Amino acid sequence: MIPVRAYFTLFTGYLRPHRRTGVLLAAIMLATIALQLANPQLIRIFIDEAIAGTAVGSLVPLAIAFMVIAVLHQLLMVWATYLAEQIGWSATNQLRADLTDHVLHLDMGFHKSTSPGALIERIDGDVTALSNFFSSMIIKIIGNGVLLVGILVLLWIESWIVGLSITTLILVTFLGLFRLHGVTVPWQKDIRATSAEMYGFIGEQIDGTEDVEANGATGYMLSRFDDIQRRWLPQVVLGWTGWALMWVSSMALYFASLMVAYLLGSWLFGVGTLTIGSVYIVFQYIEMAHRPIEQIREELIDLQKAGASIDRVQELMDTRTRLVQRSNATLAMGPLDVTFQDVTFTYDDEAGDEIVLDDVSFVIPSGRVVGLLGRTGSGKSTIARLITRLHEPQVGSVSVGGRATWDVDMTDLRRRVAMVTQDVQLFRATIRENLTFFDPDVPDDRLFEAIERLELDSWLATLPDGLDTVLDSGSGGLSAGQAQLLAFTRVFLRDPGVVVLDEASSRLDPATEALLERAVDHLLEDRTAILIAHRLETITRADDIIILDEGRIIEQGQRTRLAGDPNSKFSKLLATGMEEVLA
Ligand code: ATP
Ligand code: MG
Questions:
Q1: Which among 244, 255, 318, 374 could disulfide-bond with 548, CB atoms 3.0 to 4.6 Å apart, if both were Cys?
Q2: Model pLDDT for residues 233-268, shown as the tens digit of each residue
Q3: Residue among 79, 81, 70 nearest 140 (CA)
Q4: Interval between CA 531 and ligand 2 midpoint (Å)
């Protein structure tokens, strides 16, 4: 019902650093409970003394003690709440950080199959539900539990009949509440799953507003939105019904207890077992017991939410990346060779049908420039992704610098192998930050040197704030060509041994194109390069050519030799024009 073990592991791991605060918190809580229980005792004495006709002067100290205790109790409660919130937020922030870190290390397959909105809902939404669990729940469930036990003990001391009947009532209600709790957990799970789906959907829509509107898909998307909403509503209604059932049970308990107190109180007072002060104290304790019961009930609902969240957080934590880091070896400096040996690859392990690369083998000696050609969908970008180990081949091996990519430290591999993709991702930040990837340690003169080498200085000078111009997210409000120029500079700054340029197929204006051409020339100096090209100009700098078709290599060889051979596919490509054949 309540996954105690899962709670416990989360508890110990994330609360251990806050042990001392926790001990302090426990001490304060015990003190507040003791104070809370002591006050009615003072009133009982006060009432009994007053009725017995004691002089007012000796009652005043009792009244003062009562007020001091009440104020002290409130102050301690504030302190305890502060400490509990502090523990809760520090622990869950740590959990958020761990989850984010974990997710960032998962493979591309995971990221392609999980929408960003759903991830946000998990890392932030679910964890926020947990933060409640860490903070107020500790206070409320444990603290109120102890308070309740204290109240019962005092009731038993007052009169065993009252003690027995109230204890029985409370036990029966709690058993009922726990049963209800077990029934309603799955309801809460459904609600959270649908809410994750909902936010995932919204995130995706916001991302694709332009495409959705341009293609007139608004109506369809709205109907999908309706669909999710329509599924959501009954789930939420059911969830609140569960809440209401629990509320009704605890209210029933409260009224039943009051009834018992009236009946037993009047009877016991009548036969002289209890003084009027003791009858008062019975009422006061039953009244006091109501609050902790209410709070425990409310926390049980939060516990359900936390339970659903813990399951999902655990599930996310248990998602293992398919790209295990098996070695800390680093790659040499300077240009590196690249080898594909009998590589067969498909994106979807389970389905296993559509083979994207079929038994691909080639060797690129270090320092050579290879032009990779092929129709759209032939697997060119996939080859680039395998070199940077965003995915791993099912069969065969990919090596860089004489080492299989799985046998190299992942961070080092990605530092030494740079890839400029077809659509460059820019961040909503300054050009400087976009170039250095937010690394403030890159000195300005290195930045200027790179910019100068790639001959971008005159273009940057036309921007309003130069390097400090703030870009929009996505394409950054730049043309595809300009975005590629920035991406080149990024790569240049990292000084990689292998460069993979996945050329955007869009046409560029002549000025930017000329700039790009020169930048590519500089970028390729003293590096191994793979040029995935859509334009003839790009391909003229290749030493070798590889032509892909439907995931197979159909031709490879030296560019000049292939160009000279009238029967080669490459020379036919040159004759008919690349754009026509490959577009
Ligand atoms: P283009 O010239 O249009 O860029 P490409 O040669 O780069 O094409 P790839 O992107 O390598 O082609 O895609 C090869 C095949 O793999 C295509 O059939 C594509 O549908 C499929 N594919 C690409 N990316 C994924 C992915 N993330 N998940 C599943 N299949 C994919
Ligand atoms: Mg591609």
A1: 374
A2: 999 999 899 888 888 888 888 898 889 888 988 998
A3: 81
A4: 11
